Amino acid sequence: MGHHKERIDLGIEFGATDVVPERGEEGIKKVMELTNGEGTHVVLECVGLMPAYDQSVGVVRAGGVISRVGVPQYEEAPVGFASLFGNNIALTGGPAPTRAYMKELLPDILDGTYEPGRVFDVTVDLEGVPEGYALMNNREALKVLVKPQ
User: Fold this and answer.
1) 7, 23, 78, 113: which sits with the fewest CB atoms below 10 Å from its CB?
2) Which of 93, 61, 95 has the alpha carbon at shortest distance from 77?
3) Where are the domains positioned within the chain?
4) What is the b/e burial string over 67-80, where b = at least 16 CB atoms within 10 angstroms of the residue's CB?
5) Any idea what DSSP says for residue 38?
6) What radius of gyration do the chain's Cα atoms show?
7) CA end-to-end span of the chain
């Protein structure tokens, strides 16, 4: 689900078969159409706002999983009987455990052994971090790679 052209194009390149640009009730309706009214087994809610959580609850099937990746931009989300509990929907996720992988992987990324991925379309130095966040927030960059000089 999305409407950011660069992200959609990259998703299709990586194998996405359907794109749902609609939001809210329209987006939920479209996903339900695509899944024959069942909803999806797994939903990734990636650092979204409350409407993204509501949409996740609306498209996940009974017995499914919503995994929040990163840090949600909302404090509270309903998990009561009518939303998650009553439909046996699991809610999971958390901030990425980057420290667990950094010592092993970062040297290989910095020396060029590993390509961190095409999702990084802008590179900044440490002083450029605020600009990098602004570019992502304004949808002018997918993800920003911070590479100290």
Assistant:
1) 113
2) 93
3) 5-94, 98-146
4) ebeeebeeeebeee
5) S
6) 18
7) 36
DSSP secondary structure code for residue 46 in this structure: E
- Cα separation, 55 vs 93, in Å, equals 17
Q: How far apart are CA 121 and CA 112, in angstroms?
A: 16
pTM for the full predicted model = 0.78
Any idea which fold 5-94 has?
Answer: Rossmann fold (3.40.50)
Gap between the Cα atoms of 55 and 77, Å rounded = 12
Q: Are strands 40-46 and 90-94 parallel, antiparallel or unpaired?
A: unpaired
What digits encode the pLDDT tens for the residues 104-142?
988 998 898 887 787 889 999 999 999 999 998 888 998
- Report the alpha-carbon distance of residue 16 to residue 50 in Å, rounded: 24
Amino acid identity of residue 63, one-letter, is G
